TrEMBL record:
Transmembrane segments: none annotated. InterPro entries: Hemerythrin, Hemerythrin-like, Hemerythrin-like_sf, Hemerythrin_metal-bd. It comes from Clostridium uliginosum. It comes from the Bacteria. One of its GO terms (molecular function) is metal ion binding. Belongs to the hemerythrin family. Signal peptide: none annotated. CDD domains: Hemerythrin (cd12107). SUPFAM superfamilies: Hemerythrin-like. Pfam families: Hemerythrin. This is Hemerythrin. Coiled coil: none annotated. Residues 11-128 form the Hemerythrin-like domain.
Length: 132
């Protein structure tokens, strides 16, 4: 696996860690699609991955924000802004541009996901676990 939920990414909040693990799984499947030389037209698979990400992150962010609210987490507002920016970026995807250069587009999704997984989860979400 290229993308794997390692110990250092865990928040200690079981349901959040499980949901993050799913995000790592989507990133890994995106990477495997990029490396798949046998699938020449990846358009449908890329669109399916983006749709899965849209659905899953909406579900995850809602759950995470509800938890933050329940513990009166002080940095919740900042988290919400970052979550909304992530969703906006996914919703602003231009499907025509995917078709023109599929591998480049997959690479851009991976970079976006990689930044999110390493920056947001590692730096921001871990703090939620420390506030319990």
């Amino acid at each position: 696996m290229m993308y794997e939920m390692k110990e250092e990414y865990k928040t200690g909040i079981e349901f959040i860690d499980e949901q993050h693990k799913m995000l790592f799984d989507i990133a890994d499947r995106t990477y495997m699609l990029l490396k798949n030389e046998y699938t020449l037209d990846k358009y449908d698979k890329v669109v399916a991955l983006i749709e899965e990400l849209q659905d899953y992150t909406a579900f995850h962010f809602k759950a995470e924000e509800a938890y933050m609210e329940s513990i009166n987490y002080k940095k919740m507002f900042t988290q919400k802004i970052e979550h909304e920016a992530f969703i906006k970026k996914l919703n602003d995807v231009d499907l025509k541009s995917i078709d023109e250069n599929q591998d480049d587009y997959i690479i851009s999704i991976l970079q976006f996901l990689n930044d999110w997984l390493t920056e947001h989860i590692f730096k921001n979400d871990k703090l939620i676990g420390e506030k319990r």
